[in-house]
């Protein structure tokens, strides 16, 4: 290579080659090209001159172009050790480049331009091991190998003294024209990229140390000029632009649509339900009613349980219910001790863990706790030790201070067990003692033992769990006074009488299934036929068959049960529903329930079902029964339907539309409010101002038959159970607080209540409100028999 360098001194290189060499050297010094790329491009420029001077065979030169890096490495006496990643590589150092940059920066420093902060110095280059070229347009396709670890080789120059004079002459001859030619041929100021070549010639640091008398301004390449132009601009925008302009671009304030519908009606007034009937000998408490029927009508049927085949497995009489409840109350108060002290005291909470297939033992446990002045907390049977839902139930049990759980022998055997054979501790649950309440495990009380007299007071009767949309579980407390008032109101609204038969398909542990099938039924000495959910899966017509066989006067179902009956009714000719005077639809507040009610009536009207028998109702865990439709013989107005514009509902406005359109929601009324209750509708957001008559809001109820609190949660109790509705002027509408139901709706003609959704399902998009129930209702409106139910 020394000989080759000597021979180049006498080579008359063309001006354009000298210009390209100078520009290539400048790019290498600036770091715009890697060492390997520089060697290939330089070898390409000199390839046609080197074989002529040294007598090298052109075929060998071609061979050199193919295996250039390997040949270069072979010439080196020994391979250098890899450089540390943080070491400074002298091959990328150039005093010419340094002088040019310093002169340019000094020039702009005189103008007092702001210097950027945290910017890496252009005078310091990283080593090849960590360097990534900023502009790969002028690099060869093999440059990627420089960035792969273990592929980098270094080839030191053998004789630097022979190359420096030639390089001096090349740079002197082309320095004045390199910058001009590069900017003139490329208007954008970028130098022309040299074509890639495979030939390799090595040129590194020492050649770049020549001091040359060239004007500094002519040595500023387009890359340096581009860097200086960047430095002239501030790194950050002005403070005003940063906080004002960008904010306006990113966060556009959505302006309300001037054409959106707005409520135009007058302010609504509080709707008052009919007064509770006077002159009727109501029992002083529910336990007093149980004692009366248990002692005077001991053989009257109270509850009949069915198995999964539809056969009656056991009928609980009022006498058995009274005696078993007394036995359980005595055992809880006198036979459970801890360190010679009673395990339970009046007012303590007790968990009831019973499956949906055992209503008899649940009823005994519930009334046994009431007789012992304990507070039952019905919960679901945990399936596994790590059941996700049981963790939330465990939080409820812990907050209620529950230490004892009641269950049956069969249910306990199915619970997960620990290694000791005891019931396992479920994740998130407090430590519990388990008591099996089958007859053989209880103690018969002495004849002179009687439970404490229970009058309807403010004390807590039971706690019903509620799961919110976030998955949290809270307990709604119901007082003895509220329990009695609920039973009285339902008795009057539904016209219940003694010895009536009620078919119950709902869960008897909570909601309407508990209020009708366990509480109100005992007050009126009714006979309840409990349909287990497992039987409904096997035979969806089972409840209709039991209505027919027991000549039931009332039935308690959901719209899903009516729909399943439609799918299974083909071929059933021997059923009759003529005995029904009330078919209570517990989820009548759901917008899609109307389709099930209409379809059920169309099919079974020919089998004795009368249109006025279908009675949708609206319920809430906090307010219990909100409203229920009543047959005409009980003074109820004719049922109504409302065809509402979906666009209006999305703005919280009621606009009646025609049923021919697709963008409408058809809802049915859920009847009138319960006797003795006051109802109003308040705005969903902000203070509880009364809504206008054509405005959708949250339904609120004031009644002695509502829940009283969320157990142990004083903050949200005040906002839900102690709401004071306000008039437009800010005055309270009543001195008594109202309870929020979580139901969205309005009051229509004939004082009928309409529900269009739930607060938990509310979805606000922009300024428009949608409800999760609307999604279901829309899906069911499109051939539900073919697409939704069969495929779900």
UniProtKB/TrEMBL annotation:
Record field: compositional bias (Polar residues): 61-74, 127-139, 152-162
Organism, scientific name: Canis lupus familiaris
The opening ranks of the lineage are: Eukaryota, Metazoa, Chordata, Craniata, Vertebrata
Ranges of Basic and acidic residues composition bias in the record: 86-97
The UniProt similarity line reads: Belongs to the DIP2 family.
Record InterPro entries:
AMP-dep_synth/lig_dom, ANL_N_sf, DMAP1-bd
State the gene name recorded for this protein: DIP2A
Domain named DMAP1-binding is located at: 9-127
Query: Which PROSITE patterns does the entry link to?
Result: DMAP1_BIND
The protein, known as:
Disco interacting A
User: A Pfam family in this protein?
Assistant: AMP-binding
Where is composition skewed (Low complexity) in this entry?
Answer: 174-200
Region annotated Disordered, chain positions: 61-97, 109-200
